[in-house]
Amino acid sequence: MWIIIVGFIAGILIGILSPFTLPVAYARYLSIAVLAALDTTFGGLRASLEGTYDNTIFITGFFTNVLLAAGLVYLGDRIGVENLYLAGVVAMGIRMFQNLGIIRRLVLQRWGFFQRDEETLSHHGLQD
Amino acid sequence: MTTQLRRMPWATALVGVALGLMLSMQFKVQRQVALADLAAVQRTEELVAQLASAEALRDELAAEVEFLRQQQLISVKTQNEYQALAERLEQAQIHAGLLPLQGPGVTVVMADSVLPATPGENANNFIIHDEDVLRVINELQAAGAEAIAINGQRVTGRTEIRCTGPVVTINGVRTAPPLNIVAIGNPDELERAITMKGGVAESLRYWGIQVSVKKEAVVRVPAYTARLRLDYAQPILEEVAP
User: Fold this and answer.
1) Domain containing residue B217
2) Is residue B72 assigned to a domain?
3) What is the spatial distance between Cα A25 and Cα A29, in angstroms, rounded to a whole number?
4) Does the pLDDT at position B180 exceed 80?
5) What's the CA gap between B108 and B194, in Å, rounded?
6) C-alpha–C-alpha distance, residues B219 and B140, integer Å
7) pLDDT (0 to 100) of residue B1
């Protein structure tokens, strides 16, 4: 866990301190890629709280999702459906909110603020 | 989790680095985009202000040129030995449209359609275009108009009449409907040229564009004040010489 946070801080520092900025033309690709990265990260956090975390799946999922999301924007541009990226935004946005909701419940439950409720957990497919 | 993390610590760290790098890069790019938008707006405002002041200066100078031209004519006329020359100068200036003129004629007012455009119809058909103005001017010229002005802009051989967006540009000056066209000439003939059956007024009325003609005892046509300088044309002097 700590190694990800250390890497995250290092990445932010590299990004801010480096004189290089991405050309504005690629900003659309990066924005969707960032969304996919955040989505995967929250998914990984949820999995680790549930105890189903797998490092290989997380790492490969992170990079493939990022590339697929940017590829979706590229494909949309090529086939003339420039709003194709909205499909990714909607799908990942919904999943991010769902994952954040589950993470909140799991954290509250772990700290004892939340009574274990089999019905709610089964609703999210969280039975263990 | 911890045991699995130990297996690939570098790959896991790389995920963090990638996430941080992408986020910070995206923030930087977005800030750049916002700044660029702001700069474009400021630049536009600056240019609009510059254009307005340049146009005001141009109008001021044009008025001064007109005043000086009349002064020149008056001063040449008062000296007897130049009388013949002055008359030729006056004639030349009248033909070039450089003097304000008055005489009997007509005023033609063209206004955009008052008909409500029903959905599905092209709204462009209901507003005045450069072509409509040109047709009216053409009819007036054909009927022997000696001087024509549109909204204070004298029509000469170098006058352009063209649509620039929602307005019409004449002599480089933007003007908007209703267009007030004054023409000096035989009032009856000029009026008939516009209102004749199957003529320009009738065909424009189909779209609801209003063309009204009024005969006048005296109309005033201002002088041409736009650009006069010739950069390319040269007189052919040997043919003029005896």
Assistant:
1) 100-221
2) yes
3) 9
4) yes
5) 9
6) 15
7) 47
Residues B119, B215: one domain? yes
CB contact at 8 A, B149 and B221: yes
What local confidence, expressed as pLDDT, does residue A125 receive?
56
Mutate to test the interface with A, among B21, B27, B32, B33 (most CBs of A within 10 A): B21
Alpha carbons within 13 angstroms on the beta-carbon side of residue B19 total: 24
d(CA B111, CA A41): 64
Whether residues B89 and B156 share a domain: the answer is no
A23-78 pLDDT tens trace: 877 888 888 999 999 999 999 989 988 888 888 888 899 999 999 999 989 998 89
DSSP state of B80: G
Alpha-carbon gap, residue B24 to B215, rounded angstroms: 73
Q: What is the reported pLDDT for A116?
A: 60
Residue of A2, A4, A20, A96 to mutate, interface with B, max B Cβ within 10 Å: A4
The residue behind tokens 């999210």 is A124
Tokens at residue A95, please?
Answer: 């999943």
